[in-house]
């Protein structure tokens, strides 16, 4: 009698559509519930060696960073050098801003901006086409040389850089009634920029480049600050599985993310499993962006992530997006190309790369809002 045949059941998957500047791409995603990340998937990296005078210490740190960037593309950093007082003051100002009336927040409404600065209200974006409207609201500002911690004279900005300076004064004019708002927000932003410029030198070492490789390319960098506010989800939103912020990748070199203790950040690992990047006290989350992945020929991973707030309290986060000077046109880094691994990407400027997707997302949302206005019975929480 022949032994009974056995059948191996593969886990169920679904397709996730992601919006990119070059059209939609799709990922296979397991339908199993999100689980907490393991220390191997999202490690904690101690940045003490970042400040060492010993090059071998910094190279050791670079090797640790490279391992995380190749694996999941996400890691936590501790001993990062950003004072807790600056973080606490920025968080306080975040809450002060979002607790204002709609009328006061609208003083810096996104519609006043050429470059996607200012406040955008809740349920006004749909970053992932296969998921719900995003529940969160946000407030954004961008690089201005007069606020750079490495002192810059705004009158001496190179002509080729000037068109790419994307900070706008209306953000600060429209929040001038909030005591110390600008000072506290820029103090946190400046600390993030200082850390990012140090950290990008470690990225250079990790890619077998001279440590100062990116220095001349980050003099007037992409340095976008954002405050995110995630209200408590309504029962209707929970029933519809609505997202706080839909599935996406970040655009620039890397992101520094301070998140509060509430949790909600989820990362899609290599196996297609959603894992929770649980809050860890005293850390900042770092993740690789699309432009870094382009530069290193897909060696480092710009990983899909999303946010759900299923807690009974509000959630806040303060991401800082760091990239090259927006006028800087770059192709694949020479150390990331070989006969067996030819360059996958053509050169493009960091600014053009970001603008492509910002514009796409804005236009797609306008199309969706127009459809909903034409069919007023449609529910905002619908997919």
What letter string, H or E per element, gives the SSE order? EEEEHEHHEEHHEHEEEEEHEEEEH
If you compute it from the alpha carbons, what radius of gyration comes out, rounded to the nearest whole angstrom? 21 Å
Count of β-strands: 17
The whole-number mean of residue pLDDT values reads 92
Q: Stretches where pLDDT falls below 50 for ≥5 residues?
A: 379-383
Outline: globular
Which strands sit side by side, in order, in the main sheet?
Answer: 4-5-13-10-15-8-7-6
Overall SS class: alpha+beta
Number of helices: 8
CA(first)-CA(last) distance: 53 Å
Name the quaternary structure: single chain
Portion in beta strands: 15-25%
Outline of this structure?
This protein is α+β, with helices and mostly antiparallel strands and 383 residues long.
